[in-house]
């Protein structure tokens, strides 16, 4: 008995791990029924795997049987791997017992498509209903929306899940058609729009009637695989931007492709995953969401790729030196937050602190800005006098020489000689 | 330079603030530092003031702080005290004096403001880590037990989180360094001290029969969810520092 469940967990956790979404934030469920669990607004990462990724949810597939044959997926029909399926009760007991021991924040439940979309979605729904209604579980539940499932099933699932997501898989329609001819971005847009409509409808009603039930309170997210196809960073960021804008997504995840098949359409097995590129994409994503940047400022036809050597904010600044230097003691918040080396938290502290007097270099360092980077772009009370302007390439040289990137030693796609 | 020596309790620090203003008033702010007996090094030029903790004086100072600081800053003050570090108490004392002299708490250019904010941040981080890294084991009598050894005294900060979350189970979180724990049963939360200090690892005989299976499943899951081709031990250790490993189920040998 225990050997069988161990084997199932190994197979179905292994198959689910390429979905990088891990967040458990944004839940608002309170433990007001004397049951188990409550949401933590910012989410909690309970542990980290040896690859440095956070583990906050029990992330599993209900089954890895699948009728589709998507080239980039381990569970594709034509792949010769062990298959398994959990029963509803098995998922429920695993979730409850892991949660009681404080191993996890909740459940991330996805599934291969067996039989058809409706049948699969019904099974997922059975699990969440049992957890919420019978076990009085108030922890976090992230549920995959199965494209093509009956809208009524999706609507019902939204009443029990905290977050729902569907993966775009590939940044462009063309790449998706190449690797997964049976899928299209249109299949993803329809259910995203359906859930989005539900979210705004319920939040309108909540304004009038406080007892309105929750509907996907932590919103929706999606994921794109990066590096399996030759899409540019511009393609990726523009797609992400349009999904943020049109479907109110909470997150877009970028997953560096890890070669898992000998398919000639994709990088060969053994190719290193593009970790640095993935990192730069996340940085650009943050600039869009928290720093007031427009996507076309970060990538455009002239600069379709993010610079791997420099973070996207620094490379934007070097292309737009006319905006600098920014005077820390007088500039508006939106400009301070655009200075390379100053983050949101530091910018807020600066704006507070300067009310009590002009700020000097030592204070800025204490506040926590990356002064080695920021120094070329700011003026403060005791900035040293500089004669003549630096050229962008000079600043780039200084910044690169002053810090050593954590990626320098093992650049992505670079073979080790020794 | 005037020196004050207090016993290191919250009451002591607040009383010291009271004594400082009683001696010096608001008009002649002299520099003063606060010590605990352990951090005090006598010198030939000044006589320290020994502060006797006084509940009434402390309450007056706390009330005064409440009028000048918002909730977030009052929490930072409390966190700073829970850090149990002599330098933190020193900064806390100077910060309180600065606030009573009319200083703005959000002036991050000020050294005391900066110091209190950064100590409070470390304490909040430790609190968050405890919420993440506590691992309960089910004992045969149904009690969910976890041992811990936090860097700072954060049990008071995590009590609410665990009470709300595990409302339908009986649990105990025990701080082995400070020798006290939080026990929760049937809606009642209480602070307890065990007569015999518990071991780091609970003997298998005391565990519930299902415990070994779920601990094993969790270890399996931890292994299968890892992607070996992305291995990054530096990042792993940065997120889960080694000093926490001894209580983490997934890090213990099978």
Note the main sheet of chain A. 6 strands, parallel
Distance between the termini of chain B: 58 Å
Largest interface: A-B, 59 and 57 residues
Sheet with the most strands, sense and barrel status of chain B? 5 strands, mixed
How does the overall form of chain A come out from the CA principal axes?
globular
Structural class of chain B: alpha/beta
Q: Reading side by side through the largest sheet of chain A, how are the strands ordered?
A: 3-4-5-6-7-8
> Which class of secondary structure composition applies to the elements of chain A?
alpha/beta
CATH superfamily of the largest domain in chain A: Aldolase class I
List unreliable stretches of 5+ residues of chain A: none
Per CATH, the class of the largest domain in chain A reads Alpha Beta
Distance between the termini of chain A: 47 Å
- What's the number of structural domains of chain A? 2
- Unreliable stretches of chain B (pLDDT < 50, length at least 5) are none
- What would the average pLDDT of chain B be, to the nearest integer? 92
Helix tally of chain B?
Answer: 8
Order of helices and strands of chain B: EHEEHHHHEEHEEEHH
The overall pLDDT of chain A, averaged over residues, is 90
What structural keywords apply?
heterodimer, A: 418 residues, alpha/beta, TIM Barrel, 2 domains, six-stranded parallel β-sheet, two-stranded antiparallel ribbon, 15 helices, 39% helix, B: 254 residues, five-stranded mixed β-sheet, three-stranded parallel β-sheet, 8 helices, 44% helix, elongated, Endo/Exo/Phosphatase_dom_1 (chain A), S-adenosyl-L-methionine (chain A), Putative DNA modification/repair radical SAM protein (chain A)
């Amino acid at each position: 008995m225990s050997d069988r469940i161990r084997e199932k967990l190994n197979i179905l956790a292994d198959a689910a791990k390429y979905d990088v979404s891990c967040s458990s934030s944004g839940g608002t469920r309170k433990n007001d029924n004397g049951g188990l669990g409550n949401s933590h607004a910012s989410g909690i990462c309970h542990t980290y795997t040896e690859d440095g990724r956070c583990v906050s949810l029990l992330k599993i597939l209900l089954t890895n049987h699948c009728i589709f044959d998507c080239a980039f997926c381990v569970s594709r029909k034509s792949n010769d791997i062990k298959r398994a399926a959990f029963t509803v009760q098995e998922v429920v007991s695993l979730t409850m017992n892991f949660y009681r021991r404080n191993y996890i924040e909740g459940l991330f439940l996805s599934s291969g498509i067996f039989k058809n979309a409706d049948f699969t979605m019904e099974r997922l729904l059975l699990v969440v209903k049992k957890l919420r209604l019978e076990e009085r579980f108030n922890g976090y539940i992230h549920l995959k929306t199965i494209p093509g499932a009956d809208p009524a099933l999706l609507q019902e699932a939204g009443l029990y899940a905290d977050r729902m997501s569907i993966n775009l898989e590939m940044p462009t329609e063309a790449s998706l058609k190449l690797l997964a001819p049976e899928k299209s971005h249109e299949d993803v847009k329809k259910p995203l729009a359906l859930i989005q409509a539900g979210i705004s409808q319920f939040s309108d009603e909540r304004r009038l009637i406080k007892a309105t039930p929750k509907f996907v309170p932590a919103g929706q997210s999606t994921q794109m695989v990066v590096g399996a196809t030759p899409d540019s960073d511009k393609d990726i960021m523009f797609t992400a931007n349009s999904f943020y804008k049109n479907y109110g997504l909470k997150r877009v995840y970028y997953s560096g492709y890890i070669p898992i098949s000998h398919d000639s359409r994709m990088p060969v097995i053994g190719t290193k995953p593009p970790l640095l590129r993935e990192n730069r994409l996340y940085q650009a994503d943050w600039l869009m969401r928290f720093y007031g940047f427009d996507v076309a400022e970060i990538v455009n036809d002239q600069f379709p790729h993010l610079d791997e050597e420099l973070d996207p904010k620094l490379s934007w600044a070097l292309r737009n030196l006319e905006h600098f230097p920014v005077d820390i003691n007088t500039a508006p918040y939106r400009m301070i937050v655009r200075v390379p080396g100053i983050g949101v938290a530091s910018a807020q502290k600066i704006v507070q602190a300067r009310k009590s007097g002009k700020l000097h270099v030592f204070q800025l360092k204490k506040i926590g800005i990356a002064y080695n980077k920021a120094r070329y772009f700011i003026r403060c009370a005791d900035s040293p006098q500089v004669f003549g302007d630096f050229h962008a390439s000079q600043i780039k040289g200084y910044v690169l020489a002053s810090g050593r990137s954590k990626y320098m030693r093992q650049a992505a796609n670079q073979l080790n000689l020794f | 330079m005037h020196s004050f020596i207090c016993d290191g309790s919250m009451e002591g620090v607040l009383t010291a603030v009271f004594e400082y203003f009683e001696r010096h008033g608001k008009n002649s702010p002299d520099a003063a530092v606060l010590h605990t007996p352990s951090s005090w090094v006598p010198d030939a030029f000044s006589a320290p003031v020994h502060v006797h903790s006084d509940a009434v004086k402390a309450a007056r100072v706390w009330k005064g702080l409440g009028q000048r600081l918002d909730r977030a800053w009052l929490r930072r003050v409390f966190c700073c005290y829970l850090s149990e570090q002599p330098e933190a108490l020193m900064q806390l004392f100077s910060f309180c004096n600065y606030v009573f002299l009319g200083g703005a708490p959000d002036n991050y250019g000020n050294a005391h403001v900066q110091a209190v904010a950064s100590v409070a941040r470390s304490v909040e981080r430790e609190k968050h880590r405890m919420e993440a890294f506590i691992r309960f084991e089910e004992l045969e009598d149904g009690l969910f037990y976890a041992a811990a050894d936090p860097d700072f005294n954060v049990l008071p900060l995590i009590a609410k989180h665990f009470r709300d979350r595990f409302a339908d189970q009986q649990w105990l979180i025990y701080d082995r360094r400070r020798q006290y724990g939080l026990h929760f049963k049937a809606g009642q939360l209480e602070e307890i001290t065990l007569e015999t200090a518990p071991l780091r690892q609970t003997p298998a005989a005391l565990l519930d029969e299902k415990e070994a299976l779920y601990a094993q499943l969790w270890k399996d899951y931890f292994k299968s969810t890892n992607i070996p081709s992305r291995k990054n031990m530096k990042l792993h250790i940065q997120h889960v520092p080694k000093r926490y490993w001894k209580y983490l189920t997934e890090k213990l040998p099978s």
